Amino acid sequence: MKKLSISLFCLLLIGCNKSENIAKEEVRADLTEVLQEDKVAFSSPVASNSPQPPSLISEKTESENKSNSPTQRIDTISKKIIKNGDMRIQVGDIKKSQNQINEIIKNNQAYIQKEEFQNTDIDENLYITIRVPHKKFDALVNSFSNGVGTVLSKNISSNDVTEEYTDVSIKLANKKIYLEKYRDMLKSASTTKDMLEIQENIRELEDEIDVSEGRLRFINDRVNYSTLNLNLYKEKVRSSATSNIGFGSRFGDSVTEGWNSFVSFILGMISLWPFFLLIPVFVFLWRKWKGRKKK
User: Fold this and answer.
1) Which helix (H) or strand (E) segment is 90 a member of?
2) Which of 60, 137, 183, 193 has the highest CB neighbour count under 10 A?
């Protein structure tokens, strides 16, 4: 009987120890869940009632933002090459050559952005700024080089702006991420000071985003459509009797230049009037000196 009571007592102690260990494990589990919830709430940008200032955004969030779509977009951005060109062609007839050029522009799916004509006594010049799809740029230049006239000068340049485009794209994506975070913080702002501070940062970010998007649009436009500045040049014949630069025109120009030279001489002499006032003084002194020498 004594042995039986001792055995029951031992079993009772073992059961109490097990229940105590189970209770401790449950308490630890509860504490772990509470700590995890607190950690999540602390790491969330909108967890507290008063939003954090923009300067207190964690570096971890910034590193995560940089490791998202902006970094991955580097691999998807293709080469960005801007092609520009300048050509000067001497032709026999400006109007005829212009019709030929318009046909070439139409065949290469290009368009004229600017056109300017100058007519002087010596020559005629037609300046045309052409925008052409980058794939058609070389074909357009070759078409102008063959059959239009004599190429006096040609300058073709290429500018790789891939690095600039990638840099602007990454910064733009990061700014959009921060903009969304600031908007979330604005919803949970509790004081007027915090609201004004966040709204000011939102306004600055929106302005920077507009500038970056405008720069990307400009680069895409210059990449998709190359620019060619074309100058058609015609030298006028000088031996024609009806020409504006014939003998009569030259004679009139010579008379005009002679008269202008005479007027310039008179005006130059008049500008020396202070020196003319000194001539009588020098004459008087010279005579006086000569008289003394005779005595």
Assistant:
1) strand 81-90
2) 137
Instruction: Supply the pLDDT for residue 241.
Output: 45
Q: Give the residue among 119, 111, 99 at the shortest CA–CA distance from 234.
A: 119
**pLDDT score of 34:** 34
Return d(Cα 91, Cα 87) in angstroms, integer.
13
Answer yes or no: is 187 within a domain.
Answer: yes
pLDDT, averaged per 10 consecutive residues of the chain (295 residues), comes to 49 48 41 37 37 42 45 60 92 88 91 90 90 92 86 91 92 92 88 89 92 93 92 76 56 78 83 79 81 74
Beta bridge mates, 208: none
- For the chain, what is the domain count? 1
Task: Specify the pairing of strand 81-90 against strand 225-235.
Answer: parallel
Kindly report the length of the chain.
Answer: 295
Using DSSP, how many helices (H) and how many strands (E) does the chain show?
Answer: 10, 5
pTM: 0.51
Residue 118 lies in a domain: yes
Q: Does 112 map to a domain?
A: yes
**Residues in Cβ contact with 249 at an 8 Å cutoff, skipping those fewer than 6 apart:** 121, 243
The answer to whether residue 273 is domain-embedded is: no
